[in-house]
Design goal:
Structural class of chain B: mainly alpha
CATH class of chain B: Mainly Alpha
Strand order of the largest sheet of chain A: 1-2
Number of strands of chain A: 4
Distance between the termini of chain B: 43 Å
Oligomer: heterodimer
Strand content of chain B: under 5%
CATH topology of chain B: ABC transporter involved in vitamin B12 uptake, BtuC
Number of strands of chain B: 0
Distance between the termini of chain A: 62 Å
Order of helices and strands of chain A: HHHHEHHEHHHHHHEEH
CATH class of chain A: Mainly Alpha
Order of helices and strands of chain B: HHHHHHHHHHHHHHHH
Number of helices of chain B: 16
Number of helices of chain A: 13
Transmembrane segments (chain A): 12-28, 63-82, 89-111, 156-173, 205-222, 254-273, 285-303
Shape of chain A: globular
Strand content of chain A: under 5%
Membrane topology (chain A): Multi-pass membrane protein
CATH architecture of chain B: Orthogonal Bundle
InterPro entries (chain A): ABC_transp_permease (IPR001851)
Radius of gyration of chain B: 22 Å
Main location (chain A): membrane
Protein name (chain A): ABC transporter permease
Number of domains of chain A: 1
Largest sheet of chain A: 2 strands, antiparallel
CATH topology of chain A: ABC transporter involved in vitamin B12 uptake, BtuC
């Protein structure tokens, strides 16, 4: 128990940005807009959060800046994909490079610390929250430590990320907006025939993706760490994309897939140089590559089948 | 089967037919020029935003890239990388496939170069090592691209996603190989031993000296000619052979290709392998031409620059060579610029790269209607002046 809990705890922390980014991709892709720019949006958000919270010492202002920056990038992607009917993959690639270049460039120009933002003072971070009764229950076997270590003691964004999953499921499957959103990703012509604007629906989906990526970036810069560093997303946007595919574009499985990938990450940190009973020393790189390998295998249909939204990636033209 | 071409139309090769018709010189010359200019204008605004002068920056950049012999040498050295990766992206584009995996394919290609060089460098001269290493690089790159290509046509998994995943897998695999297997005992650097000097590719310093240019210590080497030969090869292949015709047909209209009896499976796999081979050969330049050893992350983003280069060059080898030189200038000039104007760091290049991909790729139709209207106005005026209902442009 003592050995497992810290790993699970760090898995939770590592899976939070994946959950938020994967939910971002969920809304965008279910509406028919492919989004490989999750990485870039998260990165620009992390930079905005780190820079603003570092200067103002306010976590909330940092979060707001992150969301604004990320939504701005999302709107560029939306404009290129929806209004200009450009190639969504190319647009996503552009977003990723823009974010990677701009964050390093502006960071260096403004703060001259090799792309870092100034260290965020205490008030500029989302502090860990002690849930009521955590200390009192610690003595209770099994439940106590799990509650005190695993469930309690995270920052606000962790809890928000977990709550975002049922919220997303409710929006997608229980509201009129969600129904239309899913419809526009499968058959935009039918939605158009019903007199609903395809473009406006998709713009809203893309903006929601921007908001989620904003939270994910803020989590990286001002909750998990105390400041932005160069390329701090380090491929998390692509792992989130992998998790989204792994979850077959559904909210609850997104939570599971992200936790699985977060767990793999936590284990790979834990296993550095450790020897396992039967297999001997496992190369850390093998565990790091596992999420990508699993996604390739899944996409190839060797375990289950991942079918993307039918209209994904296709620009909608009103009259054919 | 179902080649999933719908979601990755070739943005470089013939865009979707549009209502307005404009002459080829505008389609292939003017519009790309306007798109790239827009990208650079926005980049200039970013420089202005941090309080530096964009004009001064451009001047420093141009001087750093072309102002002296060594600068030109480095510009061409970087351009060599980008010709390979740009061609790689373009060949796949022509078949309607977006290969984002050039980075990983080049990385794995480097493994091919290193294995051949480590085996032969002490027993064979460079002119034996060079072709063998090139073949190995092409083979390794092609093999790494084969899997995503095959998975797309046979298992329906999207080549964009698979190639992204394969970049990460390649990176993890290469770190593991270098750290656990290829690193010489007692070394602390995750890299192979240095190859024997006799295996090194000839530098082009002597050749440029004949032209009266002193490139100093610039590592521009024989690979430049290999890259140019590849550009010629791609031109002949895509526009002058049956295979190239089939590749373009599949890219433009897969349904028509099937109707014409072309196997989409074969074309997708062959073009991905060609693409991977071109990307893999990029490794020859830095590994055998410059560093003389295989290092971690030696590709350094050149695979991704290939995307911008291919889009800017509209998938044509001439355009690709020109855009590769432009990006070579940015890489070399950017380094000099960062030295003289510390506020403008080299990361500006990545911003420009992103803007070029955005304007020349995703927003390629942004200025099209406006230009078409201007051209129509212009030709109408010309006709009125000529006083005859002449041939429309």
């Amino acid at each position: 128990m003592e050995a497992v809990l810290p790993v699970l705890d760090s898995a939770v922390r590592l899976s939070v940005p994946l959950i938020l980014a994967a939910l971002a991709g969920l809304f965008s892709e279910r509406s028919g807009i492919f989004d490989i720019g999750l990485e870039g949006k998260m990165l620009i958000a992390a930079f905005a959060a780190g820079a603003v919270a570092g200067v103002t010492a306010s976590a909330w202002l940092g979060l707001a800046a992150a969301v604004v920056a990320s939504v701005a990038f999302a709107l560029v992607h939306g404009y290129a994909s929806i209004t200009q009917r450009g190639n969504q993959i190319v647009s996503g690639v552009a977003i990723n490079f823009l974010a990677s270049g701009l964050t390093a460039f502006l960071g260096q120009a403004w703060f001259s610390q090799g792309g870092r933002t100034p260290p965020v003072p205490a008030g500029g971070r989302f502090a860990e929250i002690e849930l009521p009764g955590a200390e009192a229950l610690r003595g209770v076997p099994l439940v106590g430590p799990v509650y005190a270590e695993l469930i309690s003691g995270h920052n606000l964004l962790v809890y928000l990320a977990v709550l975002a999953v049922p919220l997303s499921a409710w929006i997608l499957y229980r509201t009129r907006f969600g129904l239309r959103l899913r419809a526009v990703g499968e058959n935009p012509a039918a939605v158009d025939t019903a007199g609903i604007s395809v473009a406006w629906l998709r713009y809203r989906a893309v903006m929601i993706a921007g908001i989620f990526c904003g939270f994910a970036g803020a989590y990286l810069a001002i909750a998990q760490s105390a400041g932005f560093i160069r390329d701090m997303t380090a491929g998390k946007g692509f792992i989130a994309l992998a998790a989204l595919i792994f979850a077959k574009w559904r909210p609850w499985p997104v939570l599971g897939a992200c936790f699985l990938f977060g767990l793999l990450d936590a284990i790979s940190i834990r296993l550095q140089g450790a020897r396992l009973p039967i297999v001997g020393e496992v190369p850390v790189q093998a565990i790091q590559a596992l999420p990508y390998l699993l996604t390739v295998v899944l996409l190839a249909g060797f375990i289950g089948r991942a079918v993307p939204p039918r209209a994904g990636g296709v620009p909608y033209v009103k009259e054919h | 089967m179902s080649a999933d071409t719908r979601s990755s139309p070739p943005p470089a090769a013939g865009a979707a037919p549009r209502a307005v018709r404009i002459p080829p010189w505008a389609e292939y010359g003017l519009i790309p020029l306007v798109n790239v200019t827009a990208a650079f204008l926005v980049a200039g605004l970013v420089v202005l935003f941090i309080g530096e002068s964009p004009l001064a920056a451009v001047k420093l950049l141009l001087w750093g890239a072309l102002g002296f012999g060594e600068g030109i040498g480095f510009t061409l050295f970087y351009a060599t990388n980008f010709i390979f990766t740009g061609l790689a992206v373009a060949v796949a584009f022509h078949a309607g496939l977006f290969n984002i995996g050039g980075e990983g394919q080049a990385y794995v290609g480097g493994l091919g170069v290193a294995l051949v060089a480590l085996a032969l460098d002490r027993i064979a001269p460079w002119w034996v090592v060079f072709p063998a290493a090139t073949a190995a690089a092409a083979l390794f790159g092609a093999a790494w691209a084969f899997i995503p290509g095959w998975l797309q046509v046979r298992r329906g998994s999207h080549v964009v996603i698979t190639t992204i995943m394969f970049n990460f897998i390649a990176s993890a695999m290469m770190v593991w190989l270098l750290v656990d297997h290829l690193m010489p005992a007692g070394s602390m650097q995750p890299e192979t031993r240095t190859f024997a000097a006799s295996a090194a590719l000839p530098k082009l310093g002597g050749l440029f000296a004949l032209l009266g240019l002193d490139v100093g210590g610039a590592p521009v080497n024989l690979s430049l000619f290999l890259a140019l030969a590849c550009a010629l090869f791609v031109y002949v292949l895509v526009w002058r052979t049956k295979l190239g015709y089939e590749i373009r047909t599949v890219g433009l209209n897969p349904a028509a290709a099937v109707y014409a009896g072309i196997s989409i499976t074969r074309i997708a796999v062959v073009s991905m392998m060609l693409s991977g081979a071109l990307a893999g050969m990029m490794a020859v330049n830095p590994v055998l031409g410059d560093q003389q050893r295989l290092q971690i992350d030696f590709v350094g983003g050149a695979g991704f620059v290939g995307i911008a280069v291919a889009l800017m060059g509209r998938g044509h080898p001439v355009g690709i060579v020109l855009s590769a030189i432009l990006f070579g200038m940015l890489y070399q000039g950017g380094a000099e610029l960062a030295f003289d104007m510390p506020a403008v760091s080299r990361d500006m290049i990545v911003v420009i790269q992103g803007l070029v991909i955005l304007f020349a790729g995703a927003l390629e139709h942004l200025f099209r209607p406006g230009i078409a209207r201007l051209l129509a106005l212009g030709s109408a005026a010309l006709r009125r002046r000529a006083g005859a209902p002449g041939k429309a442009v």
